[in-house]
Each structure stands twice: as C-alpha cells, then as structure tokens.
Design a protein that fits this description.
alpha/beta; Beta-Lactamase; six-stranded mixed β-sheet; 45% helix; 5 domains; single chain
C-alpha cells in the first residue's frame, strides 16, 4: 500500500471514530432528555390523578382515559373503564347527557339544566355527579374532558359540617347553662350556711333572704335574656316608628351615664364622637334596639382599658339605615371573630355570661336587619348594623304581587332526594332563585335573613316537623304563600293545608307541569284551585 493510500485510510478511520464519538454523545444527551421527559410525564400523570373528582377523557363516546378517583369511586379497574363507552357508564335516565356534550353545549361551563348526571358503579349503585365539560383534542381529533364531582359525598360532608356546628353550639350552650346554675347553687349554699350560723335567727334570716332574692333576680334576668334569644317575633304593641338618632343618643346615656351624646364627649379617659345624620324612620322595638346599641358601646369601652375613642356614624343607603360603631381598642383576633355571636362564647371572666352579642344578633335579625363585624387585632373594631327603613321593611309591608315564577325567590324545605332535587332544577330553569333548607331551624334562619316570595314544604321529610315549621312561617310572615307537596289526605280537599297553615296542597304523585301552573297562580295571588 502506498503512502497516499495509507494516509487516506487513516483519515477515513479517524473521521469514522470522531463521528462515532459524536453519535455516542448525542445518544447520551437524548437518553438524558428522555429521562427528564419521563420524569415530567410521571409528575403530569400524578397531577392528573390528583385532580379533585372523577376525570374522564371521551372521544366519540369511547372513554380513552380515567383518573384514579374515577376508578376508585366507581369500583372499576382502569382496564375495565377503558373497555367501555360513556353511555355504558351512565344511568339510563342520564343518556341525554351524551347528546348534550356531543353537541358541544357550554364548553368550559356547567351544562345549563343538565349540571347533574348519574353514573352506575360496578356494584350497581347509582351515583349522582355534578359535571363540568371542556372541549379538547386528543391525537389530533376532537374530544371532551369531563370533570365530575360526587354530589352524594359533598352532601354528606355538608351535613357532617352542619351537625358539627350544631353540636359545638349545643355544647357551648350547655356549658353556659351549667356555669350559671353552678354559680346560683354556690350562692344558695353560702346563704344556707349563713342561716345556720351562730348569729341570731332573725338577723341571719333577713340578710340571707335579701341575698337569695338577688340570686332569684339574677336567674330571672338570665331567663329573660334566653327568652329574648329564642322568640321568633314581636307583639304588634312592641313595634313603633323610631328615630334612630334619638335611640342612639339614649344608648350612649345608658352605656356610659357620664357621657352626654354630643359631637365630642368625654368621660374619664373614654371619648365618644357622634356623627348622626338624620335618617328616615324605622319600625322597631325601642327598648331592645337601645339594649343592642348600648351593648356594642360597652364592648368597645371594655376593649379600651387604657382609654380611647369611639365613633358613632349613621347614613342612609339603598333603603337601609347603616349604623357604624368604631373603636381604636385591642381588636378581635382572627381565631375568634367567627364565634363572637355564638351563645355563651366569651373571652372575659367566667362570671360573664357571653350573651350580649348573641342577643344583639337575634334582635337585629328579628328586625329583618343585618349585623357584621370587621376587626384588626391591635387596631380596633367596627360593628356595622343595617336596618330596613320604614318604607322598605319587608316585615311591615303588604304582600308583593308577582306575575309568575321568573325572578321569584323560593325557599324549598325538604331533606333532599330525587323529588326535591328535580323541583330545584325545574324552578331554577324557569328563572327563579331557589334555596333548599334541610331543617326547621335552618328554614327559619333563612327566612329571617332573606326575602322570599314563596315557600314549598315537603310533608314527606321524616326529620322535619313540617306542620310546626309552616305555623312558624305564618307567624313570622302571614302573607308569605306556602305550598305543601307530597300532601297526605283526600285528593282535592283543603283539610290538610288549612290545618297546617299552608295555602296550597299538592298530593302524590307529583305532576310537574300542574305543580308549576299552581305555583304560578299562587305567586300571582290567584286562587290556585
């Protein structure tokens, strides 16, 4: 081999080795990038599996992906689900849902009038879901991503939360009663020992009788407060037309007698400044409103042990009187601000009952008003009370005439289930705003805090005293129409609704079209029969 041939061969071999080295480096880089992509892909799949609710990717009705939540809730393996179509998973009553999503209704939103659908689990159990649908593409073709939330689980969680709140309130109430009774028993025990002491019988008896009377008065005072807390309405004789400016001035005098309610008043190291604009009159119970205002002022004074300023301001807006109580005291911490209206909750000495703000909440609620608190720890607290002006207070107005279901506010009293859910959806589709109350107390609380045009009560609700609830509603708002569904009794008779206080009774089975017609007539103040 010549020199030139040897040189050419060596150059070719060197180039080949260099190319091989470059390819090995590229392969190593590609392996590294592939590893990173696989790592990111695993993270992505984990995120998808952690998405709340059941997640399905559907293409031409075939399920091409389901997350772990979907498999776990429905009891299928991923392989079993991927072998099915969406109609296979749906309950027969929900098959129209497939047509709705295939037509592409409301992408990215809850489907109108179809926000609930039912899936059949592997066990045969029917599960109710709220569905959100998004259009997407999979392997270059149109597809739908379905995110489903189990309504049964949500309702169970909401019920558990409500029960927890109720239990906490009952425990606090029982604790408060126990503490008050214990204090009374201790005092009575001391007086009994004093009667049996060495002094003359007459002196001991007179002194102890005076102290026992003080205990009795304390018990009577507590009883009156609890009666005020639980009563649902006022006697007409208690309600008068009030000038809130005068009521507030009297409340200042009650809470701090040394202070004269003026533009700027001083008493010791407390300064009260009032900016009381003239307001339209309100209907209310003067004595109880004075107590509420005085209680809030006293709370503000107690929050300023080293002195400070209280500002009282009034204004009129949107048919409501707005009353502000501002102080620059210690403020209320975020940990307890949601509890300050709870019965017997207090951060003060154990001798304090902790009923002041609870009573204020109940009294303002009976006046169809609202009370709320805003506070920053170390920077003071503001209480805002809103009361309806005399010309707009629903408690004292005649019945507002409605033309039909659209734009009506409807309270549905029932314990859920198929009939209540269907009724809610149908009424919502007709343009009404519907709210469901699942207990006697919840329904009355909603009625005190909101204005409704119609109440629908389910006589079949086993844990709701429907007759008692209707009577309470009629005592609170006599002109508010009440319809009773699933009514028992002879068809066509009005015996049941008359005895229970309802204006309309609909028996079983329910005919939705007829029910809507009767409800529309009831709202329009026509005789539905």
């Amino acid at each position: 081999m010549g020199t030139d041939q040897q040189h050419t061969s060596k150059s070719w071999g060197q180039r080949l080795r260099e190319e091989n080295r470059g390819l090995r480096e590229k392969i190593a880089q590609l392996k590294k990038e592939t590893g990173l992509l696989q790592k990111e892909l695993r993270k992505t799949w984990k995120l998808i599996n952690d998405v709340p609710g059941a997640l399905f990717l559907v293409q031409q009705e075939k399920i091409v992906f389901a997350n772990e939540n979907a498999c776990r809730e429905l009891g299928y393996t991923l392989k079993e689900i991927l072998a099915k179509t969406l109609p296979d998973m749906l309950h027969p009553d929900s098959l129209s849902f497939v047509n709705a999503i295939q037509q592409g209704k409301a992408p990215g939103q809850i489907l109108p009038e179809q926000n609930e659908t039912s899936l059949t689990a592997k066990s045969g159990q029917t599960l109710c879901y709220e569905v959100r649908v998004n259009k997407t593409r999979y392997q270059g073709k149109p597809a739908f991503l379905l995110n489903m939330f189990n309504l049964d689980q949500r309702k169970t969680q909401e019920k558990q939360l409500r029960e927890s709140v109720k239990t906490e309130a009952l425990v606090r109430m029982a604790s408060g009663f126990s503490r008050e009774m214990e204090n009374c028993m201790i005092l009575l025990g001391e007086h009994i020992q004093e009667i049996q002491g060495p002094e003359s019988h007459d002196n001991r008896l007179l002194r102890s009788l005076g102290r026992i009377e003080a205990v009795r008065e304390k018990g009577a005072f507590l009883s009156n407060q609890l009666d005020c807390l639980t009563r649902a309405e006022y006697d007409p004789s208690e309600i008068t037309l009030l000038d809130l400016k005068k009521v507030l001035k009297e409340a200042v005098n009650i809470s701090h007698p040394k202070v004269t309610a003026g533009p700027e008043s001083n008493a010791d190291n407390i300064k009260i400044k009032t900016y009381l604009r003239a307001l339209s009159p309100v209907y209310g119970c003067k004595r109880e409103l004075e107590d509420v205002f005085a209680s809030i002022i006293l709370n503000a004074i107690e929050a300023m042990p080293g002195g400070g300023e209280i500002y009282l301001t009034t204004e009129e807006h949107s048919g409501l009187a707005h009353i502000y109580f501002q102080d620059n005291g210690t403020g209320i911490s975020d940990a307890i601000i949601d509890k300050i209206f709870d019965p017997f909750f207090t951060t003060k000495d154990r001798a304090q009952r902790g009923l002041g703000l609870t009573l204020a909440y109940a009294i303002i609620g009976r006046h169809e008003g609202d009370i709320r608190v805003m506070s920053h720890q170390g920077r003071g607290t503001t209480f805002l009370i809103k009361l309806p002006l005399a010309g707009s207070a629903p408690l004292f107005k005649g019945k507002t005439k409605k033309k039909g279901l659209k734009d009506s506010r409807i309270l549905i009293i029932g314990e859920g289930g198929g009939v209540i859910d269907i009724l809610y959806q149908v009424l919502t589709s007709k343009g009404s705003t519907s709210t469901i109350a699942s207990s006697h107390h919840e329904s009355l609380k909603l009625l005190r805090g909101n204005k409704f045009n119609l109440v629908i009560a389910d006589q079949n609700a086993p844990h709701i005293e429907t007759s008692k609830t209707i009577r309470e509603i009629k005592r609170l708002q006599p002109d508010l129409p009440v319809a009773l569904i699933n009514a028992r009794g002879n068809p066509g008779t009005r015996d049941v609704p008359i005895k229970m206080g309802a204006d309309l009774a609909i028996g079983r089975p329910l005919d939705i079209d007829r029910l809507l017609s009767l409800l529309s007539s009831l709202l329009a103040n026509e005789d539905p029969h």
